[in-house]
Amino acid sequence: MGLYPHEVSGGMGQRIMISMMLITKPALIIADEPTSALDVSVRQQVLAILDELVTANNMGLLFISHDLNSVRSFCDRVLIMFGGRIVEELPASQLEQASHPYTRGLLEALPSLLHPKERLAVLRRDPARAEG
After folding, report:
1. pLDDT tens digits for range 47-79
2. On the chain, which terminus has fewer CB atoms closer than 10 Å, C or N?
3. How far is 118 from 52, CA to CA, in rounded Å?
4. Sign of CA dihedral 10, 123, 102, 44
5. Superfamily of domain 5-129, CATH level 4
6. How far is it, in rounded angstroms, from Cα 16 to Cα 131?
7. Exposed, middle or buried: residue 102 (CB in 10 Å: 0-12, 13-18, 19+)?
């Protein structure tokens, strides 16, 4: 507690921020990339603790992330945004059945040990295509 902000690592800072947002027990938490500075093993532990606290305190949680694997395992419902607009909405458990080209591109760009690809997909990020 006696450390200055520049004396903590990125991961420690991230954990401190998560603690700060939970201590006031808000009705809704907006968590924008809350685990981005954490390694994969710690990320799942932090998400599990966050889930327990949100459930125990009857809080709402808006989880914003580019990490589709975390989204798939942590969230109930997914909204995919592209060009500042929601282009697809579906249950997280059905993420593999997404139909929007941008969502499909995000999924195809994920590396997989079970289904290795010689080359990962590259997304086109033209906002004019957001309607498709």
Report:
1. 888 888 889 989 999 999 988 888 988 899 999
2. N
3. 39
4. negative
5. P-loop containing nucleotide triphosphate hydrolases (3.40.50.300)
6. 39
7. buried
